[in-house]
């Protein structure tokens, strides 16, 4: 199952930036484990988005709980379970094996 993790920054960007190096290390660990597929800041910079792959929502909740942004209280999170039914030609089937090519 795919999940979208939507982060909304809480407080000034200076507070977020104080934890940015640790947050990027957290992201790197999850990319290395093939948990995260895409991530980046929102535009304008009010938060971020992570696309993750996991077997359960509980697993994603555990990952969120260890994010330095969460631990420091500088971001709020919304987790959205997502089951794509279509994908563009060229998007790897491994991202959404159940999705038909549109």
From TrEMBL:
Record keyword Hydrolase present: yes
Database matches in InterPro entries: Dimeric_a/b-barrel, YCII
GO terms, molecular function: hydrolase activity
Highest taxon listed in the record's lineage: Bacteria
Keywords: Hydrolase
YCII-related domain: residues covered: 1-82
Pfam families documented for this protein: YCII
SUPFAM superfamilies in the record: Dimeric alpha+beta barrel (SSF54909)
Keyword Hydrolase appears in the UniProt entry: yes
Family: Belongs to the YciI family.
PANTHER family noted in UniProt: GSR2449 PROTEIN (PTHR37828), YCII-RELATED DOMAIN-CONTAINING PROTEIN (PTHR37828:SF1)
Protein's UniProt name: GTP cyclohydrolase
Biological classification of the source: Bacteria, Pseudomonadati, Pseudomonadota, Betaproteobacteria, Rhodocyclales
């Amino acid at each position: 199952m795919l999940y979208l993790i939507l982060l909304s920054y809480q407080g000034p960007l200076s507070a977020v930036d104080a934890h940015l190096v640790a947050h990027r290390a957290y992201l790197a660990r999850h990319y290395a484990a093939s948990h995260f597929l895409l991530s980046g800041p929102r535009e304008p910079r009010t938060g971020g988005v992570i696309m993750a792959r996991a077997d359960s929502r509980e697993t994603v909740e555990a990952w969120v709980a260890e994010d330095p942004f969460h631990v420091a209280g500088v971001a709020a999170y919304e987790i959205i379970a997502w089951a794509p039914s279509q994908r563009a030609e060229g998007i790897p089937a491994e991202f959404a094996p159940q999705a038909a090519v549109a």
